[in-house]
Amino acid sequence: MSNTYKSAGVDKEEGYKTVDKIKKAVGETHNSNVLNHLGSFGAFYEIGGYKNPVLVSGTDGVGTKLKVALDSKRYDSIGVDCFAMCANDILCHGAKPLFFLDYLACGKLDSEIAAEIVLGMVKACKDNNCALIGGETAEMPGMYQPGDYDVAGFCVGIVEKDQIIDGSKIKTGDKIIALPSSGFHSNGFSLVRKIFPNFEEEFEGKPLYETLLVPTRLYYKDIHKVIEEVEVSGIAHITGGGLYENIPRIIGDGLCATIDASKIQIPTVMLELEKRGNIAREEMFGTFNMGVGMIVVVDPDHAEKVLHLLDDAYEIGEITEGAEKIDLKF
Predict the structure, then answer these.
(1) Which end of the chain is least crowded, N or C, by CB within 10 Å?
(2) Where is the PurM-like N-terminal domain (predicted)?
C-alpha cells in the first residue's frame, strides 16, 4: 500500500470542508476596499480617503484560555478573543481596524470545530467594521496532539498621522478613566487553570467554564465614540501584566499614574480566585486586568463628558509627578 499525505495524518479534504463552511460568512465581512476573495495567495485591500495615513498593526493569540474551551467543548467565543486581543491593541493609538487575518494550527483538523472558531472571528469583525480577508489552517500531526488547537491573529488598522495617540500629550492633573472588562479576557489562564482545575464546577448558578469563556470585550465603538468628541491623551489596553505593566507603557518620564484601587470594580470570579489560591492582591493586579479592560487618559475638563459618553466607565485616578510611572494605592 502506497503512502499518502492522509496516511501521515493530514486530511486535505477536511481542510476543504472548513473553507466551504466559512467562505460565505467571511465574505460578508468584506467591503468595497477588499479587491479579491478567499483562495488567492495574498489578500488585497485598497486604502483611500486619508490625507496622511499611518498603518497600525497588532498580533496576538488566545493563550491557554484555549485549554478551557477545548476541554469544555465550547469553541464559539475563542475567535472573538483572538480578534479582540489584536484589535484592542491598535485602538490604543486611535486606529480603526481595516482587516484581519487568522492562523489556526491543530494536530488533527475537525472542520466543525475550525469553522466554529473562525465564525467567532467573523462575528467580531462584523461588529468592528473590519474585513476578515485571509488566514491559514495548518494540520500538524506530531507537533500537536489530536484535539489540540492553537489560534493567533493579525490586525491592521489606520489613523491619520496627526491624530495618532501615543501618550506624549499626557500631563499632570489628567484623569484616568476605566472601561470595565468582561472578565479575565485572554490573560493569566495558566494561573486560572491551576486554581480552578474543574471547569465544570458550579459558580454563581452555572458551570464555571461559562464565566471563564466570556469573550474579551471589544472596545472599538466605545473608544471611537470618545475620540470623535474629546481629545484623548492616552489609551492603554490592560492585558497580561495587568495595570502594573500596561499603564506605564503610555506614561512619560517624570509622570506617574496614581490609581485608587478601592474604586476598581473587581469581578466576583477574580475575588474567588484570589481567595481560593491565597494570591496576594499585588500579584492579582500584576497578572489580571482585575475588571479594567482599558483605560483612557483625558484632560480634567473632559472627564465628565467621557463618563457621559460611556455609561459604564468610571474614574480611578489621575496623573501626578513621580519617578515611578504607576502608584497603585490599596
Answers:
(1) N
(2) 54-159
